[in-house]
Design a protein that fits this description.
By secondary structure, this protein is an alpha/beta fold. The chain is 41% helix and 17% strand. The chain has a domain of 202 residues: Rossmann fold, CATH 3.40.50.720.
Amino acid sequence: MKILLTGINGQLGHQLQPLLTNIGEVTAVGRENLDLADPNAISQLISQVKPEIIVNAAAYTAVDKSENEPELANAVNGIAPGIMATEAKKLGATLIHISTDYVFDGSQSTPYTETDPTNPLGIYGKSKLAGEKAIRETEANHIIIRTAWVYGVYGKGNFVKTMLRVGKDREELRVVYDQVGCPTWTGDLAEAIAQIIPHLNSETYGTYHYTNSGAISWYDFAMTIFEEAKQLGFPLEVKRVVPITTAEYPTPAKRPAFSVLNSGKISQVLGKHSPYWRDGLRQMLKQLAALSN
């Protein structure tokens, strides 16, 4: 089975590659050999590789920066996935695409299901929703997986790495407590993506939610990161974490206050529930500690 994987240098793509290699022959590309803002480059690569499965783990993920770069965000998140789907359809291939909780506005108080109405608050969420719509409009065989609060050992920054970095130098940190979501370790997300591949058929195509189990605020997540990291011997100076409101920490892009996703649908396909978020965090920190030594 030929598989094309995009976003190889990102935190998810890096974790996915070895798992996909167990399934088939993988062509993995990053930004340096595929510009997702260039529609022709995408089409050429796909027609050249002729994959049976395309896993799009690449995205423009700079949520705040996207407010000033809407055209680039839309090119990568909104237009590129539609081109991938168009090319997949020509080949009779399947596209697996990763989307986000930011397609919702966070006004709900119960976990979002796949059929709940979308209403993104910022450019990033709007660009990701445009990508979803572009894929569906092609009627190509596809799986869209919305996930949230993703972190891993590889790639650029994420919340866990940021907390460890600033917690090493500062005694006091201020972290937002009134945004609630599901932290998701790339290790678990990558496993779910690899495990859904054998189940691909006309019954299973469509949109899914996948996060680690359990919901928490950024403040509680930060507290747990420090608790777990201290046990593993990470160098930390932090002594106090102060809970603050979103209003006290203004950002260029608005975030959904409640973006908990219901992963029940994908659990039925995979035959199991996603691992608990704290277990994922512990595994990631152990991995990070091993890489640092």
